[in-house]
Write a structure and sequence with these properties.
heterodimer, A: 249 residues, alpha/beta, Rossmann fold, six-stranded mixed β-sheet, B: 245 residues, mainly alpha
């Protein structure tokens, strides 16, 4: 299905401007006088599924918004494909799925995706296939379930095959089969060379990722692979590993 | 600014309206009902109907388009679609151009329908050219888009945004010369009315009612309405911030 020639190799770790991924240095975000993110260091490499995990309120969405270039009160540096967030170059190659489904309720599924395709380029049918919404293509979004709406929102982010994908809690509220299919889809996307950052508050989903960024109270607790995390903490249970990371002296 | 993205946005807004036929029907038919009502009120006073009926033709697109734009853009801000669009190559002017174009078209359709009724069966008499009347209505619609956009920036809910209607529109209605000729108002109010765009739209309608052809004064009024509209749109574009808290 995916030709070998299209597979871009992941960038070597530690490359300073990281032209294929996302680099975050010393990111601090203040909102209404409150520090929401504090001195965050993290990176997202192309070709790997990077999961952003942490409890609700830990700053996951703020981090996503900062990378997307829509968060104000940002200090520190972020580069996306080597360019600053919100720049014209980044906007051409970024797909962003917000936490609440940001699509038009009074349009059909296909009309929504068609509009985002017109704005960024891309093909509608294949995206609807990918998120399994083909049977609902002509339904008004307003008449869909919450999980279906979330997938319309996902489709709007995927259309045009952007090189960088920010997906804010895409698997929330979905049935286990669909969740499994979505993680397979994410795997497929990174194998095409996409830089993918996907957030979730269900730590157990971390086992689908190549790399985990663990966030708590606006600070990065760790960025490592699930295997490294298990080794460091001596447990395969990711919830337990998270607890041990925080409680260790 | 990209023509393709502007047209795609206009098409998207029109599709949203197509899925909401009740709103479209209300936008098109209510002005017809109101002009008919006015005709009945002035059943025995044709001159008064000519005096009041024509300025109302300029007032309808302002109210209709102000309300739909302010609510549509408030929804874009609240549901996150605006935030998402601003992470794509779509420019702010593409978005505004799309809204102005689609609602401008709708306002022109409304003006054609209401004028056909008012100038035909209801017997309103104007001396000026009808196409200029439609053009003036479309310019007023553009003004409605700009003012609606501005109002949406200062509201956080639909309750709040409809409250801007009496704030933004009603003073203009009271001072535009529909109730009392502007020259006969107290000097202070006359000065204020000089600063409000609807006054020029209504002046334009008076010219259309009284004079044959389209003179300099009429084109001047249209230009002023257009300038206000562009000013409001540009000010409004400044409220579409990419980075928010």
């Amino acid at each position: 299905m995916i030709s070998a020639a299209r597979v871009r190799r992941p960038a070597p770790a530690g490359e300073p401007s990281c032209p294929t991924g996302i680099q975050i240095h010393g990111l601090t975000v203040e909102r209404g006088g409150r520090v929401v993110l504090s001195d965050v260091e993290a990176s997202v490499r192309a070709g790997r599924v990077t999961g952003l995990f942490g409890p609700s309120g830990s700053g996951k969405s703020t981090l996503m918004r900062s990378i997307a270039g829509v968060q104000s009160g940002v200090r520190g540096t972020i580069t996306v494909l080597g360019a600053p967030p919100g720049s014209a170059a980044v906007r051409r190659s970024l797909g962003y799925m917000t936490q609440a489904p940001s699509v038009y309720e009074d349009l059909t599924v296909a009309e929504n995706v068609r509009y985002f395709a017109a704005v960024r380029g891309g093909e509608v049918g294949s995206v609807l296939e990918r998120v399994q919404l083909m049977p609902w293509a002509d339904q008004l979004v307003r008449n869909l379930s919450g999980g279906q709406r979330a997938r319309v929102s996902l489709a709007a982010a995927l259309v045009g095959n952007p090189r960088v994908l920010l997906l804010d809690e895409p698997t929330v509220g979905l049935d286990p089969l669909l969740r499994r299919d979505l993680w397979r889809l994410f795997r497929e996307l990174v194998s095409e060379g996409t830089a993918l950052l996907v957030s979730s508050h269900v730590l157990d989903e971390g086992r689908h990722c190549d790399e985990l960024i663990l966030l708590r109270e606006g600070r990065v607790v760790a960025q490592q692979s699930p295997e490294e995390l298990s080794r460091h903490t001596g447990t395969d249970d990711l919830d337990e590993a998270f607890i041990r990371l925080i409680e260790q002296p | 600014m990209s023509i393709a993205r502007t047209l795609a946005t206009a098409r998207r807004v029109l599709l949203q309206l197509r899925h909401d036929p009740r709103t479209v029907a209300l936008m098109l038919l209510v002005p017809c009902v109101l002009e008919t009502l006015l005709r009945l009120v002035f059943a025995r006073r044709r001159i008064d109907f000519d005096q009041a009926g024509a300025p109302l033709l300029a007032f309808f697109p302002l109210t209709t388009v102000f309300l739909v734009t302010s609510i549509a853009l408030l929804r874009e801000r609240v549901t996150g679609t605006l935030e998402r669009l601003l992470t794509t190559p779509l420019g702010r002017l593409d978005l505004l151009g799309g809204y102005a174009l689609s609602f401008g078209l709708l306002a022109a359709a409304q003006a054609v329908l209401v004028s056909a009724l008012t100038l035909g069966p209801l017997g309103l008499h104007i001396r000026g050219p009808v196409p200029v009347l439609i053009l003036l209505a479309a310019c007023v619609a553009l003004l409605g888009t700009g003012l609606g956009l501005l109002a949406s920036a200062f509201a956080r809910s639909e309750f709040q945004v409809v409250q801007f209607f009496p704030v933004v529109i009603m003073p203009q209605l009271l001072l535009c010369g529909l109730l009392l000729a502007r020259e006969r108002m107290p000097a202070a109010l006359h000065t204020i009315s000089d600063l409000l765009p609807l006054s020029y739209a209504v002046d334009g309608m008076h010219h259309l009612t009284l004079q044959e052809g389209a003179g300099v004064a009429l084109w001047g009024d249209i230009a002023i309405v257009l300038a206000f509209a562009l000013g409001a749109l540009l000010l409004g574009a400044g409220t579409l911030r990419r980075r928010t808290g």
